[in-house]
């Protein structure tokens, strides 16, 4: 297996870095932290014109038809600049959900507009229990008039206040994985209320979404009634890989900032990088970054090719990257010393993004539990991928 990126992928990386360096400096990031929407419409239009909003959408629906390995390239660059806005929510969570499970009619209705960036979507999964497993899906959806009526609350929904469409896992009966159904809900529908939450990482906006007797038709079902968990699981695996790519990009940037600072900051008449304690910190950070990249690239290849170990690879990558990004960003602050703790320095933006990404789709502990479940359930004699 070749883990190297192709010439086309490297060109995509350079193009993405050039655009983001120009359009997403830290001054913009800080401005969007204080902005309720969390992004600028003109920047979103520029990304749409470049085709970024349709990168992963199949060509027949107006997209570029790229796979998760290609997306890793762009998402790493977005992670480097802590890019705010609804890209992750709409392109990954929304677009992938419809591409993976939508009917021909649903794909034709939504994917061209998502690819063009004219509408935005997101996934509303987590509830008050905070659980990421199927038991955590408790929002009631009762059959009514051939469709369903929704009542309940979803929490920590990415960019719901910017979304036109919500993908909502609901409970239509049964328990566990049986009885979970995915519904497409108009974010502006009667009975839907959205409240922006004040969270630690304001570069990524999260919302509370409440459904009060919201009615949807039978054409709103994504996939099959009562069998939505398998589809959701596949979507979340890809979302984990995408998040890992962002985390790798952020961790790499923190490492670069820390090494550069260690070369120029002097203490006792010497650059602090000449001291063994700082050298060891930087070396440990590099090991974490490179290992996180390896896990992420493998997981991206696995989900892109739908290999049997794709779920295992995604969980392994998320477990490792969750710890690695938090560790690297914390060490980066330590290397920068007093200035690293100040609001004016950018290091805290990476640390906050690391903490937010760490718990999204389950922290390292939860994903290691999923890895253990896969390994223990494997047939005798079978081994996990290297």
- Side-by-side strand order of the widest sheet: 1-4-5-8
- Structural class of the secondary elements? alpha+beta
What percent of the residues sit in helical stretches (DSSP H or I)?
40-55%
Series of H and E elements: HHHHHHEEEEEEEEHEEHHHH
Q: Can you count the beta strands?
A: 10
- Rounded to an integer in angstroms, the radius of gyration calculated over CA atoms is 21 Å
Task: Describe the fold and architecture.
The protein has helices at residues 7-23, 26-33, 41-49, 68-80, 87-101, 104-116, 228-264, 276-304, 310-336, 347-359, 364-377; strands at 121-123, 140-144, 147-158, 165-171, 180-186, 192-196, 206-216, 221-222, 266-267, 270-271. By secondary structure, the chain is of the alpha+beta class. The longest helix is centred in the middle third of the chain and has 37 residues, at 228-264. The N and C termini lie close together (12 Å). 47% of the residues are buried. Residues 381-386 have low confidence and may be disordered.
Structure summarized in a few sentences:
This protein is of the alpha+beta class and 386 residues long. It contains eleven helices and ten strands.
Notable features of this structure?
386 residues; alpha+beta; 4-stranded mixed β-sheet; 4-stranded antiparallel β-sheet; 10 strands; disordered C terminus
Topology (SSEs and partners):
Layout: H1 7-23, H2 26-33, H3 41-49, H4 68-80, H5 87-101, H6 104-116, E1 121-123, E2 140-144, E3 147-158, E4 165-171, E5 180-186, E6 192-196, E7 206-216, E8 221-222, H7 228-264, E9 266-267, E10 270-271, H8 276-304, H9 310-336, H10 347-359, H11 364-377
Parallel strand pairs: 1-4
Antiparallel strand pairs: 2-3, 3-7, 4-5, 5-8, 6-7, 9-10
Helix pairs in contact: 1-4, 4-7, 5-6, 5-7, 7-8, 7-9, 7-10, 8-9, 9-10, 9-11
């Amino acid at each position: 297996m070749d883990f190297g990126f192709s010439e086309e992928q490297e060109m995509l990386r350079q193009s993405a870095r050039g655009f983001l360096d120009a359009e997403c400096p830290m001054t913009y990031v800080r401005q969007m932290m204080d902005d309720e929407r969390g992004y600028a419409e003109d920047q979103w239009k520029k990304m749409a014109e470049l085709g970024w909003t349709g990168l992963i959408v199949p060509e027949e629906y107006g997209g570029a038809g790229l796979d998760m390995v290609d997306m890793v390239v762009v998402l790493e660059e977005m992670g480097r600049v802590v890019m705010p806005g609804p890209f992750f929510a709409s392109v990954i969570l929304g677009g992938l959900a419809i591409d993976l499970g939508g009917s021909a009619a649903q794909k034709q209705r939504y994917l061209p507009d998502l690819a063009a960036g004219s509408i935005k979507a997101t996934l509303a999964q987590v509830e008050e229990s905070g659980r990421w497993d199927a038991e955590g899906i408790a929002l009631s959806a009762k059959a009514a008039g051939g469709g369903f009526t929704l009542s309940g609350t979803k929490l920590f929904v990415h960019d719901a206040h910017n979304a036109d469409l919500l993908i909502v896992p609901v409970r239509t009966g049964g328990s566990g994985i049986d009885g979970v159904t995915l519904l497409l809900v108009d974010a502006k529908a009667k009975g839907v209320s959205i409240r922006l939450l004040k969270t630690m990482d304001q570069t990524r906006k999260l919302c509370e979404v409440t459904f009060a007797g919201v009615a949807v038709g039978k054409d709103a079902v994504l996939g099959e009634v009562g069998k939505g968990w398998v589809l959701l699981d596949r979507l979340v695996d890809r979302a984990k890989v995408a998040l890992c790519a962002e985390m790798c990009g952020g961790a790499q940037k923190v490492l670069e900032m820390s090494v550069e600072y260690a070369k120029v900051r002097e203490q006792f008449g010497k650059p602090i990088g000449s001291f063994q304690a700082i050298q060891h910190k930087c070396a440990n950070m590099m090991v974490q970054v490179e290992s996180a990249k390896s896990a992420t690239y493998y997981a991206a290849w696995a989900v892109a090719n739908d290999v049997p170990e794709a779920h295992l690879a995604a969980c392994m990558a998320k477990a490792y990257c969750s710890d690695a990004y938090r560790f690297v960003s914390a060490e980066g602050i330590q290397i920068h010393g007093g200035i690293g703790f100040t609001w004016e320095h950018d290091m805290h933006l990476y640390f906050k993004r690391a903490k937010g990404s760490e718990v999204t789709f389950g922290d390292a502990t939860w994903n290691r539990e999923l890895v253990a479940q896969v390994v223990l359930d494997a047939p005798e004699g079978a081994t996990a991928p290297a």
